[in-house]
Amino acid sequence: MSTPFAVWPPLTWGILVAPVVAGLLGTLAPAFGYLPAIGLTRPGLEAFVELLALPGVWVSVALTLCTTLAATALAWLLACAFVASTTALPRARPLRRLLSPLLAAPHVAIALGLAFLVAPSGFLIRLVSPALSGLTSPPLWVFPGDPFGIALVLALVVKEMPFLVLMLLAAQAGRPVERQLLAARSLGHGPLAAWSVAVLPQLYPSLRLPLFAVIAYGASPVDMALVLGPSVPPVLAVRVIELLGHPDLVHWATGAAAAVLLLALAGLAMVAWWLCEWPVQTLAKRLLRRGPPARPRVSFALPALVVPAAVGVAGLASLAVMMLWSIAGRWRFPDSWPDDLHLDAWIAAPDQLGVALLVTAGLALVVGLAATSLALLCLEAETHRSRPVPARWQLWLYLPLVVPQAAFLFGIQVLLVALRVDGSLTAVALVHLTFVLPYAFLALAGAVRTFDPRWALVGRSLGHRPGAVFWRIKLPMLAAPVATAFALSVAVSAALYLPTLFAGSGQVRTLALEAVALASSDRRSAGVVVTLLAALPMCAFLLAALVRARVERRA
Amino acid sequence: MRRISTPVAYFVMLLLTIVSASRTQASWEEKLAAADGQTVRFNAWAGSPAINGYIAWVGDEVHSRYGVTLDHVKITDASEAVARIVAERAAGRETNGSVDLLWINGENFHALKRAELLHGPFAFELPNFRLVDTDGKPTTLIDFTVPTDGYESPWGMAQFVLLYDSAALPEPPRSTSALGDWIAANPGRFTHPAPPDFIGTTFLKQLLLDTTPDRAPLGGPVDEATAADLTAPLWAWLDEASPHFWRRGRAFPSDGQALHQLLDDGEVTMSLSFNPGEASQLIAAGRLPETVRTTTFAAGTIGNTHFVAIPASSSSKVGAEIVANFLLSPVAQARKQDPRIWGDPTVLDLDRLDAADRALFEALPLGVATLPPAALGPTLAEPHPSWVDWLEREWQRRVQG
Questions:
Q1: Which of B213, B192, B98, B140 is nearest to B395 (CA)?
Q2: In the 8-state DSSP scheme, what is residue A197?
Q3: Any bridge partners for residue B272, and if so which?
């Protein structure tokens, strides 16, 4: 049956898939020696030979693999511990709300704050100096910016753990978790073990793709890596950006080859993760068969909460110290508080950051609206289909998220330059849409799919057309999840760094770009940017909360 | 052959001067009219709030004076804009390029000039160019040993200086070898930005000039056959010093601004700059302690000029020339040199200014941490631009390999 909604799924599919495929082709071609515009006409492997001859390239490769997998595994473990313990301890559940500012805060904002928090001259050391530590000058640690990328892994965990928690909670919602836990507990499992044996195995299949998205992001964390290191040599994604930004075009093919290598590494990491599922599963089964311990042990629920909560607090503290810097006067080591507070950086902000704020907010608004509408229309189209949507469709949704950004954005730039729309707001908005759509979709899918079809039936039986039913009955009833999807879209758009850098040719300056540019210079200005970057999505989430409150009051 | 009498010759020369001057005048008037309403996209490094503020002021001025809209495209490195210009040419874009005016010097200028991607020569025709101190500041005409030929217009002077916290270091080292000794005695308190950042690369070039037995070959392109010998003492110095660097030489700050931040945090005791007035400006902005001072090496430090250039693909060339000319005006140059604004030394010859304009400069405070021009010491010439890429690659090979 053809309905007014039938055109939207193919269009949306195109927005999700076309840029990624075009971008990958535009990266693969120069990597293998073909891009006539810059004089590459002989296909071959020269670019890869050149790449592997770069100093320290193998260190960059190893760093990329290790930081990606370590960050993903840690974030996953902590997310599970957090969800399991807050499920077991209802009183700890408000802690879940603490994570939402971290979800909304852009990567670079967290990185900047964390860098100041843990540096040898940073906030934590200042708190205990000189009184407790006896230090009058900063200690000589090789951290952050350590050659092993530990600081980078920490920052990634702070940012990705809340995302996985959200995904776990979303997967857990609508399942009879309480009953399953009760059953497991009555068999003698402790609260954490009960969650791990009874709930987690059901959730895992829907968590695999989000985990792959975390791996893909961990493989190309350029904005975080620029702030937190390592620097000599950096992770591979940073080298991709350096090579592609080199004024000598000879380096572009090498950069494209590095992007292809990065893609392969991300794939390798995903395969490694997938292979690890087997031994973990076997081990879990063996433990399960052995059954719960004879004597019930002490509950680990509270201790299991400590580390994830500490990670959350570290993230919030990162944002807080940057906000403090935005109003700080002189603030030198070892003082734990600024000498004085003033608003100079905020007074200078309209001149220096006004345009960036407008561009960021405008983009987020337009992209958020477009993404939410498209997701909604596609989901609505689903309900008008006679056959259910194949599950494979869902895989496409994740495509922009599971391919490392640095691997295909160069190709998109080549395409945009050829179409002569590079550096335009339109180009940036379109590329943003590709990255925002999956999140809007994920945020909406549950609510739309579980929407009681009888409401629509009532509307139809009253003589309304499908369009009118959608606008006048369904949409008002779905206002709360729609507002949440919009807020999430705003947050994702505001945080995008690499897509903005490439599609905008560095000319469309958003707050995320300003944050990286100011990262090294003036902490007060950087503090202002971080505050604005954190505030923008918070405003959107606040709006969503207001909408939800209104809907609930009406109901 | 009859000799022309001297008074007649003088008269003819005077006449010629007037005619040519009025011709430039007339065409400049035409340009001013043509520029009204143009938008100039000025691609300029934007890592310093002070400089961004100055560029915003220039934008206000050229808008109210000439009706030119200045759009500061904030970039993190000039090479970004160079890459974009080259990419646009590669994609076949001959006009309406995304860059109208570009802050540039050295190897980036060399690359664009060699590829014939620059508009010009235009600089010598700018009315304010006659005020430039081309005799006293020869680098306004020769950029990293490459003649500008009028394809870029001078904007400011630079000399490599060392910043130090006089509270922790009363007597700063004033030579490369003294610096090495100080670093060994004070581990963890010195570092430099990672090349290819230009401050990091300039530090390598300074070390190279100070340690090499023979400076003459550095004025020409890199010769792979002799480069290893010429640079051996430089790498020996670094091998000895870098284990005592900040973070044991296993991490480096990303640029000069990050290094200043480390100095303010007390993690290091010295910092590096290409602007003798920057320390004063940072103190005024509350970003460095008031005890910071500036010094140079007694045997001299590298000096150069930074410029603005106009890409051939710009569609606002006239507007860009008018901005370049305004940047050379005494009022703009004096404001730029003000340590409370930016603190970047002028390219002008104060003797060529009229009394009122000269007073603008004489009224400027020197700045608490700025050395008077006489105390800056000799300036050393930049090596040939090909050394930049060579040193950067060799440094990366040694540090990352």
A1: B192
A2: I
A3: B162
**Angle CA A35–A37–A43, to nearest 5:** 25
Structure tokens at B401: 């390999």
| B255 within domain boundaries | yes
How many Å is the Cα radius of gyration of chain A? 25
What is the third-level CATH fold of A1-23+344-555?
Answer: MetI-like fold (1.10.3720)
Chain A positions touching B255 (Cβ under 8 A) are 520
H or E element, residue B15: helix B6-35
Cα–Cα dist B52/B73, whole Å: 10
| CATH architecture group of domain A45-293+309-342 | Orthogonal Bundle (1.10)
In this predicted structure, the answer to whether residue A412 has a pLDDT above a threshold of 50 is: yes
> Which B residues in the span 214-243 are in contact with A, Cβ-Cβ below 8 Å?
none
Q: What angle do CA A282, A284, A285 make, to 5 degrees?
A: 65
Pairing of strands B161-165, B270-273: antiparallel
One domain, residues B121 and B263: no
Identify the closest residue of chain B to A245 by CA–CA distance: B80
Nearest CA in chain B to A36: B90
> Quick check: B76 and A56 CB within 8 A?
no
CATH number assigned to the domain comprising residue B131: 3.40.190.10
**B207 and B296: one domain?**
yes
Secondary structure (H, E, C), A475-522: HHHCHHHHHHHHHHHHHHHHHCCHHHHHHCCCCCCCHHHHHHHHCCCC
Q: Using N-to-C axis directions, what is the helix angle for A57-88 and A250-290, rounded to 10°?
A: 40
- Residues of chain A contacting B250 with CB distance shorter than 8 Å: 142, 146-147, 232
B254 with B208, same domain: the answer is yes
ipTM for the complex? 0.86
A142 and B52 in contact by Cβ < 8 A?
A: no
Q: Quick check: B291 contacting A, CB < 8 Å?
A: no
Q: Is residue B30 part of a domain?
A: no
- State whether A417 and B87 contact (CB < 8 Å): yes
Instruction: Check CB contact under 8 Å for A56 and B401.
Output: yes
Q: How many residues does chain A have?
A: 555
In this structure, the answer to whether residues B284 and B206 fall within a common structural domain is yes
The pLDDT tens digits of the residues spanning A444-473 come to 887 787 778 888 888 888 888 888 888 888
Pairing of strands B69-75, B39-45: parallel
On whether residue B205 sits in a domain, the answer given is: yes
Could you say which residues from 121 to 160 on chain B have a Cβ atom under 8 Å away from some Cβ of chain A? none
Distance from CA of A328 to the nearest CA of B (A): 10
Contact list in A for residue B262 (CB cut-off 8 A) is: 121
Please give the Cα distance from A344 to A326 (Å, whole number): 9
Looking at beta carbons, which residues of chain B come within 8 Å of A330? 286, 289
Domain boundaries along the sequence of chain A: 1-23+344-555, 45-293+309-342
Residue scoring higher pLDDT (A206 or B132): B132
Q: What's the mean per-residue pLDDT of chain A?
A: 87
Question: B146 forms bridges with which residues in the sheet?
Answer: B143
Contacts of B83 in chain A (CB under 8 A): 244-247, 249
**Distance in Å, alpha carbon of A59 to nearest chain B alpha carbon:** 8
CB A138 within 8 A of CB B267: yes
Measured in angstroms, the CA of B325 and the nearest CA of chain A are apart by 24
Q: What percent of chain B has pLDDT over 70?
A: 93
- Decide: B70 and B59 in contact? Cβ < 8 Å: yes
Domain that holds residue B216: 161-303+379-400
Residue whose pair of structure tokens reads 């505001």 in the numeric block: A494
Are A523 and A338 within 8 A, CB to CB? no
Tell whether B115 and B212 lie within a shared domain: no
A264-273 pLDDT per residue, tens: 999 999 999 9
Q: Considering its fold, how many domains does chain B have in total? A: 2
Q: Min CA distance, B92 vs chain A (Å)?
A: 8
